[in-house]
Amino acid sequence: MANPTEKPEPIPSTPKLEPKDEREELEDINGGEEEEEEYEDEDDGKPRTREDAIADRIKAESLFRRMRETPVAVRVHDVIVKGNEKTKDHVIEAEVDVLRQATTLQELLKASKVANFNLQALDIFDAVKITLDSGPPELPGTTNVVIDVVESKSPFTGQVGTFTKAEARSSSLEGSLKYKNIFGYGDIWDGSLAYGCDHSTEVGLGMCLPRFRGRPTPFTSRVYLSTQDWLKFSSYKERALGLSLGLIASKYHELAYNIAWRNVIDPSQMASRSIRRQLGHNLVSALKYTFKFDQRNSSLRPTRGYSFISTSQIGGLAPDSRTLRFLRQEIDLRYAVPLGFYRAALNFGVAGGITFPWGSEYKSKASCIPERFFLGGNISPVCSLGGPSALWGFKTRGLGPNESRREVQDNESGDTYERDFVGGDVAVTAFADLSFDFPVKWFRDRGIHGHVFACAGNMAELSENKYRNFTATKFLETFRSSVGAGIVVPTSLFRMELNYCHILKKQEHDRAKSGFFMTFSTPS
Amino acid sequence: MEGDQETEVYTLVARKPSFDLPTACPNCLPAYIYLKLAQLPFELAFNSTFPDSDELPYFESGTYVAYNNEDGGVIEKLKKDGIVNLDSQLQSLPDYLSLKALIVSWLEEALTYEIWVGTEGISTTKIYYSDLPWVISKVLFYKQTYLAKNRLGITKENAEQREKQIYKRASEAYEALSTRLGEQKFLFEDRPSSLDAFLLSHMLFIIQALPVTSVLRCKLLEHSNLVRYAEKLKSEFLEASSSSPSPPLHSFPSSFPRKSSKPKGKPKVEKTEEEKKFKKRARFFLAAQFLAVVVYVSVMGGGSSEELEYEDED
């Protein structure tokens, strides 16, 4: 299920108040039919004389005055849809249901804006116009709403952008081709090719239905074939062929179901023991629920507000007990405090996650490697909302539990790593970031600003009875941390940082070095 | 390297056991038997999610790993790396190579054919797919059947002809091996070799894992000295460490019902303990229920008599 970074700009068409409306009101007040007939004749054409124009303006001004002072009672009698040759009436009417609930003219105007936005958001119309017309003469105080839509002439659209998908765990660059409204239900079909920052590629076919069997939220489905190449870091490659269904997608809640055939292989045949044991095929059948509450003023440069996200996943939901059984929980809490000078702000963040297998003998079973947590990479912790993922200064999958790879008999050059990072079952990260504008106007205009940061994080293994060796003291003692400063350059596609990091504390075998680093992040 | 391995544990990772075999996979069993013949202490670990991998079985010790798709197989790699070599003085013998060619080409072809085509893959579910969900196992079954037919060069046109050729060669191979073996304990004098491991594995698999209707199985059982050879080696090397001896090989069909009840022997012992626990808990539960009813009746019985008094008063 794609969450595009850009939502369609709301371009509400201001509802035209036809001269008829005002005369309807006046007719109520005056209560004469003869006058109505006269006015109807005049309605057929534009006001011809200057006096008519002035009279109309006076009437409109008096109406607006009345609207400002008191609510003007009106009821929607009928919703008329025009211009839809392919799109089914009920699809459009479902998006403008809010109009029927309006009881006053002021509410109706607001509802018209909302309805217009909803229809634009369906992404299948080139233009939407909502007009308020007078109701039938025998029913005073009513109005008909006329919705004029212009369906997209070319059903094909192409798009390139950066997205965060429900089934992926990182940002990706994606190119997609969309075919809109084939069956007239507002359905959007798309084929896409995505390349992710986590060395993944994905080919997918998706379908989005705005209204599926009367459900209030859109229904999305996606068939995908993805590969993730972790040979360099963990000596395995992951391939998956799956189907993901977006069941609920509202402002705060998201529920998705994913069923996939996953294959973990090691073409290099250099993997360490833990990875070797997990090579093979698996069927993943998992339900994922995300609760997201984001009150920050920006996801690329938050200066005020807070956000909280919790993601829960349960795998093994199938009658067959041989599917992969696991539980995964991630939380992420952010808080931004404005400091008042040079648009400076202090950002704090804490994230944690835990994963565990379930079922018989769950304590001694190993957790699935692709479901474990891996910290490190060239993304910025400030932008990666969703769970423990990155620490400044540490390379991709550059810290945490690790094991020796298979020994190599012939002497090779030392640029290949000798250890596999196998991930952790529990991970915790925290960061503090002070961002500020530069005094130079040129930088300020382009949004280029500076920041000073500190971060810390750690991971540990719990499955395969390793929870017995886990102690809080040892976990705290082995915490990794780094500090640094840098420049942030926001672009239209991503946020780029050029930082100098100094590693304060790291453990043996961690891939981290003090020095200059660049990070690329997309808002999530 | 050898010094390091002495402190490390040897592990053979193979596919899961079934059909009363320590590992039911015909590619993994030779390596297992080889290590048993060499009397090298090792642990057995299982991988049950990768039926279409040619890396299995693999032998590991610390960071040393010997995969089956390298250097001619696990056994060859173990010989080459000096971990265990049963063929050190036999490789120069003239009939070593010819016997080896016979076993690893004709007999292996016959076995591959019998598993995937001859018996239509009846045994493969238990060997390869017992731990995989139905969808995945079906797709992999078709994939592996197709690959096996490709490897054997079987097409729609030559299927019958190829089948006859494979069975004929297997019969000739059994005849030759039976004559060569006679009543000896091993193929070569009185010392085990890797060829004994291959042959024993082949025979045990055919007799125990293939159905009674298998053509290859019938052909093998015609040579009683081969069957005796397998039985002897099995009881001496494979069951020396296991607690319960399995029934004799040649009576496999009649022992099948016994076999199905035998595995229940051990779980039955555990079940009675569980049953005892359950009965104890059930007794406690019933006693608690009875007590609750008694208390209720006594307390409420006293209450109702008070109500009756009230009514009388009213």
UniProtKB/TrEMBL annotation, chain B:
It comes from Arabidopsis lyrata subsp. lyrata (Lyre-leaved rock-cress). GO terms for cellular component: SAM complex. Residues 26-120 form the Thioredoxin-like fold domain. Residues 240-276 are annotated as: Disordered. It holds the Pfam family GST_N_4. It is found in: Mitochondrion outer membrane. The chain crosses the membrane at residues 284-304. GO terms for biological process: mitochondrion organization; protein targeting to mitochondrion. This is Metaxin. InterPro entries: Glutathione-S-Trfase_C_sf (IPR036282), Metaxin1/3 (IPR017410), Metaxin_GST (IPR033468), Mito_Protein_Transport_Metaxin (IPR050931), Thioredoxin-like_fold (IPR012336). Keywords: Membrane, Mitochondrion, Mitochondrion outer membrane, Transmembrane, Transmembrane helix. Residues 170-232 form the Metaxin glutathione S-transferase domain. Residues 267-276 have a biased composition (Basic and acidic residues). Belongs to the metaxin family.
